[in-house]
Amino acid sequence: MDLTTLHERTVAEFVARVETVPEDAWGKATPCTEWDVQALVNHVVGEDRWTPPLLEGATIAEVGDHFDGDLLGDDPMSAAREAAAAAVASVAARLPGGGQVHLSYGDEQMTEYVHQLAADHLIHAWDLAAASGGDTTLAPDLVAAMAAWFADREELYRAAGVIRPRVDTERDDPAARLLAAFGRDPGWSTPG
Fold it and tell me: Which of 34, 56, 140, 147 is buried most deeply by CB count within 10 Å?
């Protein structure tokens, strides 16, 4: 699967989970212990809002605090859809030309950045579904693509503090292994 398609499909997986969040679930805990459902969705919407300017060559300093705070407003589903559409369009337009993006840790190849975005959307789609009682099934081809990319990066991410320690799991399916590699317990459920 080409990278543009991978990104588009992982973004769609996340947005599909946002669209099924029940009204009473926005304050629920997520596997990302620092975020409830609303904060998790806001984080991913923020990533999607950052994508176009970064792919166009902006630096972190140039974007500044433009995407800080609440990006969801009164309509989180519309905010997620609009941000996702802009991010997908930007990747489709910019990725074929290649190049670098300016990230917080330095310059990075655009392909690597888009892989990072795809992984974040897929893993957070599972986080959101697990937290809100949604469908936690991840498409096998997306899992395989992300696992292949992440295999050489897992320890680097862990050493940088970007992900939590690998989780031991009794489940031995590809999705469970990928979640465990990203520090997720595949059997996690909302407390209480």
Answer: 147
Classify domain 3-135 at the CATH topology level.
Four Helix Bundle (Hemerythrin (Met), subunit A) (1.20.120)
Residues 6+ apart with CB under 8 A from 118: 3, 6, 7, 10, 11, 145, 146
Q: Is 13 exposed, middle or buried (0-12, 13-18, 19+ CB in 10 A)?
A: buried
- Residues contacting residue 72 through CB under 8 Å, at least 6 positions apart: 38, 41, 42, 45, 79, 80
Beta bridge partners of 103: 106
Q: Write out the two tokens for 182.
A: 């990203």
Query: Length of the chain in residues, anyone?
Result: 192
Q: What residue ranges do the domains of the chain occupy?
A: 3-135
| Largest CA-CA distance found in the chain, in angstroms, rounded | 49
Phi-psi group of 45: left, alpha or beta (phi > 0 → left; psi -120 to 50 → alpha; rest → beta)? alpha
pTM of the model: 0.96
Alpha carbon distance 87, 81 (integer Å): 10
